[in-house]
Amino acid sequence: MKSLLYRSVARADLGSDDIFEIVRHSSENNGARGLSGFLIYQQGQFLQLLEGEASQIDDLLAKVRCDPRHHSFEVLCEGSIERKSFPNWRMHRVIAPDSNAMIDRIAEAQEHPLPSEVLSAAVEFFETNQRTRDNQAA
Ligand SMILES: Cc1cc2nc3c(=O)[nH]c(=O)nc-3n(C[C@H](O)[C@H](O)[C@H](O)COP(=O)(O)O)c2cc1C
Description:
The structure is a single chain. The protein has helices spanning about 15-35, 55-65, 100-110, 115-135, and strands at about 1-10, 35-40, 45-50, 70-80, 90-95. α3 runs antiparallel to α4. β2 and β3 (about 45-50) form a beta hairpin. The model has no long low-confidence stretch (mean pLDDT about 95). It has a five-stranded mixed beta sheet with strand order 4-1-3-2-5, with helices on both faces. The chain has one domain (about 1-100, about 110-135): Alpha-Beta Plaits. With about 140 residues, the chain is an alpha+beta fold. The protein binds flavin mononucleotide.
């Protein structure tokens, strides 16, 4: 199995209904493909973790990369895993008030520890967003 973490930029006019629909459709599809993971939408960007058989992830990504609801797709890390960290999240949207709370939610929910590079990349994503927010507020 492998896990893959990517970030992308949401289309500017995407609303909460659109994101709800992405998560609904994803959790329906991913169950049948044996995939799990999370989706985070923060400051107009997506951060998504996918875990499962490499061929299933690669097939799905071929579609996701071309999805017009986002752009600037960038794989942050990809590697083999022995066990899923979120076996019961067919696609779970993590929602939290700030970046630290996001990291806490993910850490609390993991059933097996996330690969350290996945965690570091996620922390960096949140920290960058937090700095952007702090600068906007200043
Ligand atoms: C940010 C983002 C994440 C997505 N994640 C998934 C996913 O985990 N699983 C999935 O089936 N589709 C996901 N999609 C939707 C796919 O791009 C595509 O629309 C869908 O897989 C097509 O489903 P179908 O084969 O049932 O037509 C995502 C789309 C976006 C924009």
